[in-house]
Design goal:
The protein has 436 residues and is of the alpha/beta class. The protein has 16 helices and 14 strands. Helices cover 34% and strands 17% of the residues. The chain has a 7-stranded parallel beta sheet, with helices on both faces. It has a 4-stranded antiparallel beta sheet with strand order 8-9-14-11. The chain has a 3-stranded antiparallel beta sheet with strand order 10-13-12, with no helix packed on it. Bound molecules: alpha-D-glucopyranose.
């Protein structure tokens, strides 16, 4: 829908609502992120499946995690001294966007303001922002341009909690402070939604210390949808929004959901955090999300100069090579029922079942309790056919090489006669037992 179509549609909706016409969604409901419009707005996001999260701010200068200000109780005046020291190289975001594309990610979500309160964007509402401090330029603008140059959808992370603003904590107990702080917050969000063209995701974070009423979250979302009619928003401003955001774990919901996860244990750059996930773990996590039609938002924490930690580059590059060969098996997936295996996980697209083998069993791989008839099977990476034999209790894939042909996970695409269904209870009950 173009902006003009949208305006016409809004006008028609308003007129229809006024005339009391049934069956038309009044535009006020739409402006608040109406559910009936959700499918349209979220289509690209469901198809994207895999995104890049970016945590970048003054904390990157210290390299001791994005919570360093609070967890080391650094006084505000001392912390502010980081602002002139934050001097990233120009257009660092181009490398992130290229890396994201190569990794098979389709969208990016960058911190425009984290809990520390520093704005990576240009604002009229505070001097504590990138163009007026060390960077000397609008880092959000660079990010948006870089993302678009690589064909990425663009998301903005925005922390409601603010450790820097004088009203950021006292707004909970002082009504005048709350009003000022809410005006400031809505004002910053308005700038973000106005000054950077079309934005695809608004990713709120930590609503401490107010509730939805205190933040005036309904009004906040209504403003956002008015300025960005195609946008999707998450659920962290204490409203449901369009999707749920399990953090650091994978948990399916009965609505749209996105797991966000670090690659080591820190969101912001942490110099000595060496607890990196292997490419295999990342791929398996992506598969787990895809099994239940969820998204996976995987974080990088660039250094203060904007460069991406070497380990993150290594991991994403390896994941990207796998995605080149196997991306279809996680991107366009439907909810998948089969899940039982000791060495594989599964995704599904229509009647195609993908068996993702992460611990190679050798020459034969088996799915127990496979109730749907298999028509054919092929190695996804090479397209080579895979021989198989099926009876009532299992399907066996035969003559596989001794070593896994793909890395870090080998995927077999299995064409079935109907929607693949696994029943291991059937095996437990019906498999013939010895006569004793
Ligand atoms: C938590 C953390 C925050 C991080 C976020 C990402 O809310 O407080 O530092 O940005 O998770 O989901």
């Amino acid at each position: 829908m173009t902006r003009r179509d949208y305006l016409q549609w809004m006008a028609a909706g308003a007129a229809a609502a006024e005339a009391g016409m049934p069956g038309l969604v009044p535009f006020t409901a739409y402006a608040a992120g109406d559910a009936s419009d959700r499918e349209r707005r979220m289509k690209w996001w469901h198809e994207a499946r895999f995104g890049m999260f970016i945590h970048w701010g003054l904390y990157s200068v210290l390299g001791r995690h994005e919570w360093v200000m609070e967890n080391e109780a650094i006084p505000v005046r001392d912390y502010e001294q980081l602002a002139p020291r934050f001097r990233p190289k120009p257009n660092a975001a181009r490398d992130w966007a290229r890396l994201a594309r190569q990794a098979g990610q389709k969208y990016m979500v960058m911190t425009t303001k984290h809990h520390e309160g520093f704005c990576n964007f240009n604002t009229k509402l505070t001097d504590y922002c990138a163009p007026k401090q060390g960077p000397g330029r609008d880092l959000v603008k660079e990010y948006v341009e870089a993302a678009h140059a690589e064909g990425m959808r663009v998301g903005f992370y925005y922390s409601l909690m603010d450790w820097h603003h004088p009203d950021g904590a006292r707004c909970a107990t002082d009504e005048a402070a709350r009003r000022r702080f809410v005006a400031y917050t809505h004002g910053l969000i308005r700038e973000l939604m106005t000054n950077y063209g079309k934005i695809d995701v608004l990713w709120y974070d930590v609503a401490w210390p107010l509730d939805a009423q205190g933040w005036e979250s309904e009004k906040m979302n209504a403003m956002v949808f008015k300025l960005q009619p195609d946008i999707i928003v998450n659920n962290r401003n204490k409203l449901d929004g369009d999707f749920t955001t399990p953090e650091q774990h994978i948990q399916a919901a009965n609505r749209a959901w996105e797991t966000c996860m670090t690659m080591n244990d820190s969101w912001g750059y942490q110099r000595t955090d060496d607890d990196w996930k292997s490419p295999k773990t990342v791929v398996r996590n992506l598969i787990s999300c895809a099994h239940d039609t969820g998204n996976y938002l995987l974080n990088i924490g660039p250094k203060a100069d904007g460069s991406v930690p070497e380990d993150s580059v290594r991991i994403l590059t390896s994941v990207g090579k796998w995605m080149e060969r196997n991306g279809d098996s996680v991107r366009r997936t439907d909810k998948c029922q089969p899940r039982r295996s000791n060495y594989a996980s599964f995704t599904r697209n229509g009647n195609t079942l993908y068996m993702h083998i992460h611990f190679w069993p050798g020459e034969t791989a088996v799915i127990g309790g496979m109730m749907t008839k298999v028509k054919s099977a092929r190695m996804l990476a090479t397209g080579n056919p895979v021989k198989f034999a099926q009876d009532r209790f299992r399907v066996r894939f035969l003559g596989l090489p001794a070593q896994p042909p793909d890395d870090p996970v080998t995927t077999i695409a299995i064409e079935c006669e109907g929607e693949p269904h696994q029943d291991t209870d059937f095996v437990r009950k019906e498999r013939p037992r010895h006569n004793v």
